[in-house]
Design a protein that fits this description.
With 211 residues, this protein is of the alpha/beta class. It has one domain: CoaB-like (Rossmann fold), CATH 3.40.50.10300. 26% of the residues lie in helices and 28% in strands. The strands form four sheets. Strands 5-4-1-6-9-10-12-13 form an eight-stranded mixed beta sheet, with helices on both faces. It has a two-stranded antiparallel ribbon with strand order 2-3. A two-stranded antiparallel sheet has the order 7-8. The relative contact order is 0.17. The structure holds ligand PMT. The site of ligand PMT has 27 residues, from helix 1, helix 3 and strand 9.
Length: 211
């Protein structure tokens, strides 16, 4: 029997200012890797696109390593069409420096502001090209108005499901081994979970979103 192809992103992106400095966020990759492990344990054919993390490669899972949002966008798009279940757990930086210096910026030449330009929205781009046989899942990392903001993202990015997490708490979201997620569907279903270890949460998420 043909195995379901699942494409998952994890971790942060790094947007370089010069060879020794970057803009990023605290994503550890744990949530995305937990989802990749859970999908592989269900015999899916998993391709994980990972930003920089300390997590060791997972056995039996194809991993592509990327650093920047532009690289994440290119790698996700390369595998998008052949994938049936796509989950965007990465914390992609919305912006990158307009100028990326080839040499280290000297302290004496320091500037007081950095000009930023917008990165592509990887998930929104995939939402525009999505076919009816593909299931597209995003995360919403929120600090306020969680459900309302997440509902907007479902429609703005043409998603089937969105997983909302509160990223203002130290005990869940970024870096923690635990997360607390509410799952919303485009048709209005709501599933709320307690605070759970990311590995067991990932299994419960797949129980709901697996096509
Ligand atoms: O990695 P961990 O430490 O385990 O932490 C997990 C997590 C908090 C990073 C994860 O659970 C999570 O919330 N990931 C999404 C973070 C995020 O970027 O959320 P957002 O609300 O800013 O973006 C909404 C969606 O659009 C996300 O699926 C995001 O991947 C995607 N996006 C955002 C910006 C962009 N330029 N391209 C995108 O594809």
């Amino acid at each position: 029997m043909k195995r379901m192809k699942c494409l998952i992103s994890a971790g942060p992106t790094r947007e370089w200012l010069d060879p020794v400095r970057f803009i990023s966020n605290p994503s550890s990759g744990k949530m995305g890797y937990a989802l990749a492990k859970a999908a592989a344990s269900r015999d899916m054919d998993v391709h994980l696109v990972s930003g920089p993390t300390d997590i060791l490669p997972l056995k039996g899972i194809k991993i592509s390593y990327v650093e920047t949002a532009l690289e994440m966008n290119a790698e996700m798009n390369r595998s998008f069409e052949e994938s049936e279940l796509i989950i965007m757990a990465a914390a992609v930086c919305d912006h990158r420096p307009l100028i990326q210096r080839k040499q280290k910026q000297k302290k004496k030449d320091a500037v007081s502001s950095i000009e930023l330009i917008e990165n592509p929205d990887v998930l929104k781009g995939m939402g525009k090209r999505k076919s009816s046989s593909q299931v597209l899942v995003g995360f919403a990392a929120e600090t306020e108005n969680h459900l309302a903001n997440a509902r907007e993202k479902i429609f703005e990015k043409n998603l089937d499901w969105i997983l909302v997490n509160d990223v203002s708490s130290k005990s869940s979201g970024f870096q923690s081994d635990f997360n607390k997620v509410t799952i919303l569907s485009k048709s209005g279903d709501v599933f709320e979970f307690d605070l759970l270890e990311k590995d067991s949460l990932a299994m419960k998420i797949l129980d709901i979103i697996e096509p």
